Task: inverse folding
């Protein structure tokens, strides 16, 4: 699952002129721009759907699978098909979450045209809301099928994991009371991109759980949470105006930036503790990414420049992927 990290754009528009349309159209309760834009074809359908999938968020789905699988390989267990299925399932849940977020945020009008992140396809009218919602459930159905295969080959518990991940992805900004609007986003990201993803990937390989999987989930989950935190720091003003009570809105700008620093630092400290405890001293290779982490924390703490925060957001995702790749390689080498 995943979260999707950015919030979709909503351009304020006029209400539908036709009362008849408001009865027959499921999107009529939303602003007029919650419909297809005439200029959508100029961009290209494939490119628009790639935009909706948000490729820059996908490393957050890949990274924990690498770590959980590498831990099993460290114990001389490796099932190639299980690894590929876990990777595919994680990617599908992330993409489905991104589609759901795009649809739900546009429907709620949670974002205005002054949002700072990338363009969102539903709110900007590039794809009809009904198509985005249909695509959401198609992708989630694909993830469920992958999860069914994993449950058959590794254990029935993975069906529960898959269903919980899909629900978490949809309810982030969807449903009657989205948890992304109540300051719980970072907690859910830690749980599902850290604990569930790492331990679940390990279970796919080993068919049981060990404390090491939960230990390695700690740095992964912390860095994944940092991605959402810097996203919400960037959007704090627009989210506040929209009534979206993210953790950044609740804490305020200064404290939120401090939380970002603590989550990033916590990931590095946890590796220092885990290396001798596993034991797997080669996982200390992940510390090579410390200069990038220092640069990012400095940027997030000191700047109010929106383009700089956009760059910090993208680079925090890269930090997660690099950190986890080195963590995985360290496990394989130990």
Result:
């Amino acid at each position: 699952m995943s979260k999707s990290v950015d919030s979709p754009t909503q351009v304020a528009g006029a209400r539908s002129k036709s009362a008849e349309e408001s009865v027959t159209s499921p999107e009529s309760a939303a602003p007029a721009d919650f419909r297809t834009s005439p200029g959508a074809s100029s961009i290209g359908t494939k490119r628009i759907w790639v935009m909706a999938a948000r490729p820059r968020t996908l490393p957050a789905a890949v990274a924990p699978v690498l770590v959980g699988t590498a831990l099993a390989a460290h114990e001389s267990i490796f099932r190639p098909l299980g690894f590929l299925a876990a990777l595919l399932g994680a990617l599908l849940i992330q993409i489905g979450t991104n589609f759901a977020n795009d649809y739900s945020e546009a429907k709620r009008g949670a974002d205005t045209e002054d949002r700072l992140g990338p363009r969102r396809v539903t709110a900007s009218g590039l794809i009809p809301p009904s198509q985005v919602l249909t695509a959401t459930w198609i992708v989630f159905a694909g993830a469920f099928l992958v999860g069914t295969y994993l449950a058959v080959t590794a254990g029935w518990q993975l069906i529960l994991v898959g269903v919980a991940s899909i629900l978490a992805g949809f309810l982030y900004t969807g449903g009657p009371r989205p948890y992304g609007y109540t300051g719980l986003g970072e907690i859910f990201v830690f749980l599902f991109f850290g604990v569930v993803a790492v331990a679940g990937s390990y279970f796919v390989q080993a068919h049981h759980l060990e404390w090491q999987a939960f230990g390695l989930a700690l740095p992964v989950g912390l860095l994944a949470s940092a991605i959402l935190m810097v996203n919400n720091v960037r959007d704090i003003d627009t989210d506040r105006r929209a009534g979206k009570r993210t953790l950044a809105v609740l804490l305020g700008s200064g404290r939120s930036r401090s939380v970002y620093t603590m989550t990033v630092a916590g990931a590095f400290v946890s590796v220092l503790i885990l290396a001798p405890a596993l034991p797997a001293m080669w996982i200390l290779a992940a510390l090579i990414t410390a200069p990038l982490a220092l640069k990012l924390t400095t940027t997030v703490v000191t700047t109010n420049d929106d383009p700089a925060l956009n760059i910090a957001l993208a680079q925090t995702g890269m930090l997660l992927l690099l950190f986890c790749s080195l963590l995985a390689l360290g496990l394989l080498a130990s």
